[in-house]
Design a protein that fits this description.
This is ABC transporter ATP-binding protein. This protein is an alpha/beta fold. The chain folds into two domains: 3-320, ABC transporter type 1, transmembrane domain (ABC transporter transmembrane region fold), CATH 1.20.1560.10; 341-415 and 491-571, Rossmann fold. 65% of the residues lie in helices and 10% in strands. It has helices spanning 3-14, 18-51, 55-104, 107-113, 115-129, 135-157, 159-166, 168-205, 208-213, 217-269, 275-317, 324-329, 379-386, 409-413, 430-434, 444-447, 453-456, 475-488, 505-517, 530-533, 553-571; strands at residues 341-350, 353-363, 368-373, 394-399, 402-403, 416-419, 493-497, 522-526, 538-543, 546-550. The strands form two sheets. It has a six-stranded mixed beta sheet with strand order 6-7-8-3-9-10, with helices on both faces. Helix 2 (18-51) packs antiparallel against helix 11 (275-317). The chain starts with a helix and ends with a helix. The mean pLDDT is 89. The protein binds adenosine-5'-triphosphate. Adenosine-5'-triphosphate binds at residues 111, 350, 355, 373, 375-381.
């Protein structure tokens, strides 16, 4: 992004908060007027009051100065409150933006980086970006107004001294401009190092058990140390250059400030300036120096913000599954009662590796389909295409005659109830998970099913708190709750990926009994369990990217036996 684009971005980001900015500017205007008046009054206090010996004038002038100070301080307080409010509101709005966007991202991004890392990276950039509504930034606006006020005041006292002081501005700007280039570079290094840490942490948080089992604690500590070291090196360099910029600027300022006495003395001796004027000028020149410092340091602050824009923009540019416009334009699936899916010549590959080739098949009411195949043959890939987690690369899938991409995504997904290989249960009670916190109605028949027998043995029954990621119940119990949750939903199609992997034999039988009674119009399951295969009326085997279809378990078994016999004969 070019520098101009960065500045445009700052304006774009602040535009929705213009009411805050206008009110804050009004406050600043009051402060500015105060800053113009006070040095002039100060000059009169010394010249007319102190040196002129007029007590009444002195008291009146002092009271006016005190009054102005009270008004400007109250304005500052109100302005500071608005600034805090703006910063908090900006952060909240942007965090919601991150959450909304992250959850709508295409599955590819989520599978590659993991949602935790995506959100953490974006939030880290946001924290840097939020400096544009933070203290330094809005203080800089205060300082700009202050600068204008004090500048006018000082010009009125003596323009020659003011011009001398202003010669400082280009020198200070040149220094910060050079320094900010280094700050920007090291800020980008810091963000990239932090991204690596987020990815690493995401992996570590999911592998606590393995780390203990394999005694990897020391190794992982060393890895963490190396990552933190890398980030800290960048942070330290960035911090060093930031301070260097400020210190160099302040040193130049001090030199100018001291030489002010020399120039001022010459003007007093030449009768171009009164002593009161000189004293007022010196004390208020500090008010001019402060804004100059602030404004030039702003460049350094922005050089910390700009690299964060880059990373945040990359996040925002990641494609969503469905845009708002698509949501409105697409057809709703809510009226579909009898779904018929036709898959025609579907091919799918990861990079250059073909997974599925010219897959053609049909799913319709009454189908009880098992998808079988070796590990890595593409069973989950097919399910992901059906659920629109992956975009089709070749071929088409139609639902009741229309391409599935023509349907509105959320209502399309409502057609399905899915149990993934490793289902996730939310933190809460068993009942919370069965009803999805009140979203789902679970009828008594399902609640009384044999599969939920285990709940009766729990002291708190359905109110049992299952802990984080169902850590307080067993793997089989978790799968059972996930199944009942799926069966309770009003969806038409049930998709199951190895649904009984953690079941005992009896539970498998209970499971099949339950499926026999369920009202789902289509059931698709990835399984190799004979008990489940015998329940199905169609078996689809994925082999070398292609599919072989069998009309039920019997024909599948016969074909398997035939092939084994042929193999034996060949070997013999
Ligand atoms: N995001 C990905 N990037 C690259 N390759 C992938 C990705 N996801 C899956 N694959 C590969 O695609 C192949 C098919 O994966 P898929 O998960 O569909 O297999 P599967 O038949 O469901 O396997 P399993 O029975 O082991 O669950 C695998 O070899 C896998 O390594």
């Amino acid at each position: 992004m070019s520098k101009n684009k960065y500045y445009k971005k700052v304006v774009e980001l602040l535009l929705p908060y213009k009411r805050y900015i206008i009110t804050m500017s009004l406050m600043m205007l009051i402060i500015t007027v105060g800053n113009i008046c006070v040095p002039l009054l100060q000059q009169n206090i010394v010249d007319d009051g102190l040196i002129g010996g007029d007590l009444k004038t002195l008291i009146v002038l002092v009271l006016i100065v005190v009054g102005i100070s009270i008004i400007t301080n109250l304005s500052m307080l109100w302005q500071a409150y608005l600034r805090i409010d703006l910063n908090a509101t900006f952060l909240k709005d942007k965090q919601m933006e991150i959450f909304n966007h992250a959850f709508r991202l295409k599955m590819d991004y989520i599978k590659n980086d993991g949602l935790v890392q995506i959100i953490k990276d974006a939030e880290y950039s946001l924290n840097n970006i939020s400096q544009i509504t933070g203290n330094q930034m809005s203080d800089t606006f205060v300082q700009i107004f202050k600068f204008i006020g004090v500048f006018i005041g000082l010009i009125l006292i003596n323009w020659k001294l003011t011009v001398f002081l202003l010669a400082l501005v280009p020198i200070r700007f040149l220094i910060t401009s050079k320094i900010s280039e280094s700050v920007e570079k090291y800020q980008m290094d810091t963000i990239l190092a932090q991204k690596e840490i987020h990815g690493w942490e995401d992996d570590i948080y999911h592998s606590a058990t393995e780390i203990k089992l394999w005694n990897l604690y020391n190794k992982k500590c060393a890895e963490y140390n190396a990552y933190l070291q890398k980030r800290n090196t960048a942070v330290k360099k960035m911090g060093f250059f930031t301070i260097l910029g400020t210190l160099l600027g302040e040193s130049i300022q001090t030199i100018f400030f001291n030489f002010l006495y020399v120039v001022g003395g010459m003007l007093i001796w030449g009768n171009e300036l009164s002593l009161g004027g000189m004293l007022a000028f010196v004390s208020y020149s500090n008010y001019l120096m402060e804004p100059i410092g602030f404004i030039s340091d702003l460049k350094i602050v922005l050089s910390e913000v700009f690299p964060a824009f880059e990373v945040y923009d990359q996040f925002l540019n990641c494609e969503e599954e469905q845009s708002e416009l698509q949501r409105i334009e697409r057809i709703s699936c809510s009226k579909i009662d009898e779904p018929i899916f036709k898959c025609k010549d579907i091919s799918y590959s990861f990079k250059d590796r073909n997974i599925l080739e010219n897959l053609t098949m049909e799913l319709k009411e009454g189908d009880r389909i098992a998808v079988v195949g070796e590990n890595g043959s593409g069973k989950s890939t097919f399910i992901n295409l059906l659920l629109r987690f992956y975009d089709l690369q070749e071929g088409q899938i139609t639902l009741n005659g229309k391409e599935i991409s023509e349907y509105e995504l959320f209502s399309y997904r409502d057609l399905f109830s899915v149990i993934m290989q490793n289902p996730y249960l939310f933190r809460g009670s068993i009942m919370d998970n069965l009803t999805l916190f009140g979203e789902n109605e679970v009828d008594t028949e399902l609640l009384n099913s044999n599969l939920l027998e285990f709940i009766k043995r729990l002291p708190e029954k359905y109110n049992t708190d299952i802990g984080n990621n169902a850590s307080r119940i067993s793997g089989g119990e978790k799968q059972k709750i996930a199944l009942i949750r799926a069966l309770a939903s009003k969806s038409k199609i049930l998709v199951l990926d190895e649904p009984t992997a953690a079941y005992d034999k009896k539970s498998e039988k209970d499971f099949v009994e339950l499926l026999e009674k369920c009202d789902k119009k289509v059931i698709v399951m990835i399984t190799h369990e004979p008990e489940l295969l015998s329940f199905t009326n169609k078996i689809i085997e994925i082999k070398d990217g292609r599919i072989i279809q069998y009309n039920g378990y019997e024909s599948y078994l016969q074909m398997k036996k035939k092939k084994e016999k042929e193999k034996d004969e060949y070997n013999f």
